[in-house]
Amino acid sequence: MEYRNLGASGLRVSELSFGSWVTFNKQVDHKLAEHMFGTCFDAGINFFDNAEGYEAGQSEIVMGKALQSLNRPRDSYCVSSKVYFGCHGSPLPTQQGLSRKHVTEACHQALERLQVDYLDLYFCHRADPHTPIGETVWAMHNLVTQGKVLYWGTSEWTADEISQAYEFAKENHLTPPSMEQPQYNLLDRERFEVEYAPLYEKYGLGTTIWSPLASGALTGKYLDGIPDDSRASLPGYEWLRERMVESDRGQERMQKVAKLLPLAQELGVSLSQLAITWCLQNPNVSTVILGASRVAQLEENLKALKAGPLLTDDVLAQLTSI
Ligand code: NDP
């Protein structure tokens, strides 16, 4: 495992990390999570991603229990949470968004669920049109000065919103955001590569990228229909199945996956390994957050670390043309 600075910060995160969206509490209980974390620690992973909105807070409870059982030194790994969606099915106005009240309450609640004294990374899960950006920057700065959060950042904010947060922090001598958590994979490149391009150098923006396999589409397993034991067949995720496979857009993407699969086979790796190693070749990526519902998937995906040399100029050109 190699370690990369989280943007301009001094925090060194493993280039592959591990997240819990969909999986923890729904497909993975705390015993399986413990096994998965063991695999992650053995591989050198040092960052675990979570959010108040994942399984209405239950995902953080599963992660907290598993980390407690493993009893690793707190200074050997990083955990995150994210605030915005709330952890209730129908949150009240004060239980969601990025107001000072909810940012503060959600942090306290995440600390309790994860059973930690501080969050290494704390993200604003989306931008909040109802809260002035300056209020959120102040709330995050206060949590940093209280020692409850070490690095704060954004997720899926526009480049303009991220710039506003940086500029506000600079003008007011507050702690600026350190990182963004955007989607980035072979099928979703635009925002990361084009919209955010000016931010990497100007602000030293770090990135913790999500869905490197486009929720599993980039394994090729949806090419012959929807497997019963896959994310797209889970109750409550019909919207994802529609978006991934059934919509016109989903079908277009599947056509690209069908062209990527033989290329991976020719190179002697699985498509998931090729897709993950492709994310790693971008120097603006600080860490690629893996997702897995089984230990075997995690083990397969970790082998992507060895696939980097396969990405010759010719292979990169073929991937881009597809
Ligand atoms: P991926 O795109 O890598 O999808 C992971 C899923 O794909 C697995 O749970 C599994 O689902 C399937 N899969 C993975 N590997 C294999 C394999 N080798 N063979 C077959 N199937 C495989 O990542 P996620 O979408 O899970 O995102 C990763 C993390 O990013 C999340 O856990 C979360 O922490 C973060 N995230 C952040 C978001 C944000 O808005 N900030 C949004 C989404 C994610 P299954 O077995 O069920 O088919």
Provide a count of the helices: 12
* Average pLDDT metric: 97
The number of domains is 1
Q: End-to-end span in angstroms?
A: 29 Å
Widest sheet: strand ordering: 3-4-5-6-7-8-9-10
Q: Rg from C-alpha positions?
A: 19 Å
**What's the β-strand tally?**
10
- Overall geometric form: globular
- CATH fold name, please? TIM Barrel
> Uncertain spans, ≥5 residues at pLDDT below 50?
none
The helix/strand class is: alpha/beta
The description of the largest β-sheet is:
8 strands, parallel, barrel
* CATH class division: Alpha Beta
| β-sheet strand percentage | 5-15%
Amount of helix: 40-55%
CATH homologous superfamily annotation:
NADP-dependent oxidoreductase domain
